[in-house]
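seq/struct pair 1
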Amino acid sequence: MTEPLPVTLDDVRAAAGVIEGHVVRTPTRHSRTLSDIAGCDIYLKFENRQFTASFKERGALNRLMALTPEEKKRGVAAMSAGNHAQGVAYHAGRLGIPATIVMPVTAPFTKVKHTRDFGATVIQDGNDLKEANRAARAVAERDGLTFIHPYDDTKVIAGQGTLALEMLEDAPELDTLMVPVGGGGLISGIAVAAKALKPGITVYGAQAELYPVMRQAMRGEPLTEDPPAQTIAEGIAVKQPGALTAKIVKALVADILLVSEAAMEHALAMMLEIEKTVIEGAAAAGYAAVLKNRDLFAGRKVGIVMSGGNIDMRMLSNVILRELTREGRILTLDVAIADQPGALSRVAALVGDAGGNILEVSHNRMMSGLSAKSATLGMVIEARDAEHAAEGRAGLGKGGFPVLTGRRRAEV
């Protein structure tokens, strides 16, 4: 006999009743342009439109509402890279519950600021979620606070699952769901609700290549303990999947697909340019996974959860500039010029005649490796697309200024 799962459809429906009217019922909308690009029907769930710009409010509120009066009086503790922190802080403040949140020192500034603005006491401790978790549990034990886990809690899982009820109500034709995965709370709740309502639906997860622990747990593989680098998707940068969530994922999720940093940056930029909506790195993982696995999703009706929109403006700017460079719309190049009056103006005229826009210029006379009568002119140029950029480079060469170096488009 199969062991029952720790969360059921009834739990999710009960959570929906608890949080109704206190969180935003975000829209699920079909995207014609993204569908054409991906080769399947794409439906987006805009959880970045929650008040705290993340789905995490759902589970946090459901868990807070289950506290006893005494627990509410003593207060709660939580650990988070940002979105769970904001969800707990906002709803705890609204309910008059004291909240202490431990966030890793690597948490984005905007998430730390917003958590404090919601009235929580914020402690930054630990370099990652695993270390922050230990610190938060120590604070909870010391001060007698109830610890609100970001994903490995039945009330939290059920709260996140309410998202699936809305998606299938708004778009009952969906046959596939794509969900970003960190510790697994979101995908677990969604899988429980979706598979109970529509047994034939397929649920996939999308995880950052640098943090593939839920995929590894699902396959019985050793967990990656020390990722080689940080990820743009800090919201799913988890080193230890939940015990409850891993059990649900193994039972109900078809597969977890890994995506690169460049792929998430590309998907994030597409959402900004095409859908005119700002999302964070973790929220871009789903569409990135669909683009990477076109054959798998061809012809399907895919619901993608855009889990949040909390991204630092500086990081967003970096992503945009990096994507424009990959697409050839911004190129950095060097040309050799004679170190004499008029040379710069001739180069500028060639770029302008080709329809390019010079954003930055720098001269290097000292260490160019050229003749002392020459200089290296470095330029950052804006072009319409990669083809236009190639035309500009060719025009410089024909005009007597061959390009010495340049950046090629990175593979996504």
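seq/struct pair 2
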Amino acid sequence: MPPTASTPAAPRLHYAWVMVGITFLILLIGAGVRATPGVLIVPWEKEFGWSAATIGIAIAINIFLYGMIGPFAVAIIERFGLRTSVCCALIVLAAGTSATSAMHTPWQMMLLWGLVVGSGSGMVANVLGATVAGRWFGKRRGLVLGLLTASSATGQLVFLPVLAHLTVAHGWRTVSFTVAGATLVLVPLVVLLLRDRPSDLGLPRYGETEIQPQPVLTENPARRALRGLGMGLRSKDFWLLGGTFFICGASTNGLIGTHLIPACFDHGIPEVTAAGLLALMGICDLIGTTASGWLTDRFDSRKLLAWYYALRGLSLIFLPYSFDLSFYGLSLFAVFYGLDWIATVPPTVNLAGKAFGEENAALMFGWIAAMHQIGAASAAWLAGVARTGSGTYLAAFVAAGLLCLVAAMMSLFVGRRSEPEALMQPQPA
């Protein structure tokens, strides 16, 4: 039977995999830019005399916006398309990071690294991966989401040793120009390769045979995002998923991603060596989070989340004592913790889709991810305050570990009763 308009001949390589490749690079670079201040805390302390608590405010703003922009980013992408939205975000990132080379006061740091870079990176955060996976994949969505999520977390970690080396060898301003250049290189690739939906190319989603019609959306993006928040606030599952993701953010990029290098420096470990630990975590995360996506397609997401949070909690409680076990103790922590760095995303997106419907999964995950970044921002600031006040991160690490054990228990209560359709569907008059 010859191919028809509804069942086109499948190409050898579905364009969905090209979308995965370009999205992987976008998330990798975007997350690396957002995490850059983690290697600049010590140089800023030395040059400007700013305390860890002061710098932590700028990083907290950055992390907060990285998540809070997410649900609005989904609505903006729905309204204006992937290509336009991502290009604008990359240009904002390049402008913000390059301008930081001229800063010399704390308020400038908070404006540029906090507000500008945080807003730009929020447009190319995990919600972008969730959007691409939902639009382009009917099958293997969990695996793809795991891979894209891994790219985001890996970008925060793998680039840090290179940036730390540049900081030591050439100064922190070189780092600002380097990350700005990396974002600009992506712009022509996005223009050439990024497509909005499979129907733009006359294709069905990967794993399907029928082309889905492209929806016509005219709703104001802010109204669309806020309407999703209103529906989520009436859902028990939203609060459970948001609460666990708050703890997820506090225990990952807010604490470890921001403060592990200064913590190592406190114990006599050089910055470049400490950044190498983060790179090792990034490599392990690429394996662990991709595997998490594969597992999410096959096992109960609630149980997966419970295991992930419990194991992360134990590793964080172990961390303060690993400094006394030489560099090998920290390496053990890096491998164990890295495999679980952000493996929580695929099962969380899966549970959000079940709770609120596939068409709302990316938007609702955007609000859940906002809770993640609120937790990360809180940890970035409070851990800096703890170090400034006591000279150690012991309390911050142990508290984060205990919170992860609480999150493990919370995960088991997600989806205990069915409530999604009544919340997400219009009610009869």
